[in-house]
Design a protein that fits this description.
By secondary structure, the chain is of the alpha+beta class. It has a single domain, classed as Ribosomal Protein L22, Chain A, CATH 3.90.470. It contains 3 helices and 5 strands.
């Protein structure tokens, strides 16, 4: 049985988030949470929170034990991009793209 949790519109680049997600993908839940606790990147805290939400879903809805759960997959998709402007010299402006992510964690036995 699979259990899911999703976080949407997270203000972290999908490219950076995928690098952190690949570290814990396929590991048992406990090992994944321990690995994320020691990573300094911003997406690590967000992914940890989503994994904890998926574990809570598994306990609440399926009556599963945390020890048998494994991180089957972590999907990181690109959300909408916020477009901002930065003033530059001589009246010009450069565009700044603030990217967002949609993170989905799938747990299985």
């Amino acid at each position: 049985m699979e259990f899911k949790a999703t976080a949407r519109f997270i203000r972290v680049s999908p490219q950076k988030t995928r690098r952190v997600a690949d570290v814990v993908k396929g590991n048992p839940v406990e090992a994944g949470l321990n690995a994320l606790a020691f990573l300094p990147q911003k997406p690590a805290a967000v992914i940890k929170k989503v994994i904890e939400s998926a574990v809570a879903n598994a306990e609440q809805n399926g009556g599963m034990d945390v020890d048998v759960l494994k991180i089957k997959n972590i999907l990181v998709d690109q959300g909408p991009t916020l477009k901002r402007w930065r003033p530059r010299a001589q009246g010009r402006a450069n565009r700044i793209l603030k990217r967002t992510s949609h993170i989905t964690v799938i747990l299985a036995e």
